[in-house]
Design goal:
The protein is mainly β and 86 residues long. It has a domain of 57 residues. The protein is 7% helix and 41% strand. The chain has a two-stranded antiparallel ribbon with strand order 1-2. Strands 3-4 form a two-stranded antiparallel ribbon. A hairpin with a 2-residue loop joins strand 3 and strand 4. It is elongated and about 80 Å long.
């Protein structure tokens, strides 16, 4: 699987990049003019992290929006601290 989120299936999408010239109207000019457009690709912000999937810890490419929204479960790095039984 190439550049794709393992959780939400987000992939690169195509769009346009526009070139402008001129001075903005609010700065006293006659307005910005588009002088050219070219195709470009918008890539998702993917991070390779460890997640818990079906009870196992696996490494997966996950977009940052899924990480921040809590759609994934991160594994515990160590067991929580417990006082010893005396």
């Amino acid at each position: 699987m190439g550049m794709q989120c393992s959780v939400c299936e987000k992939k690169p999408v195509m769009g346009n990049q526009k070139c402008y010239r001129g001075k903005a109207k609010y700065l006293g000019g006659v307005g910005k003019k588009i002088t050219g457009t070219s195709r470009r690709t918008f890539y998702p912000n993917l991070q390779s992290i460890r997640i818990v999937r079906e009870g196992k810890t696996v490494r997966a490419n996950v977009c940052v929006q899924c990480i921040r929204s809590g759609k994934i479960l991160r594994p515990l790095k160590r067991k929580p601290f417990a006082t010893p039984m005396v």
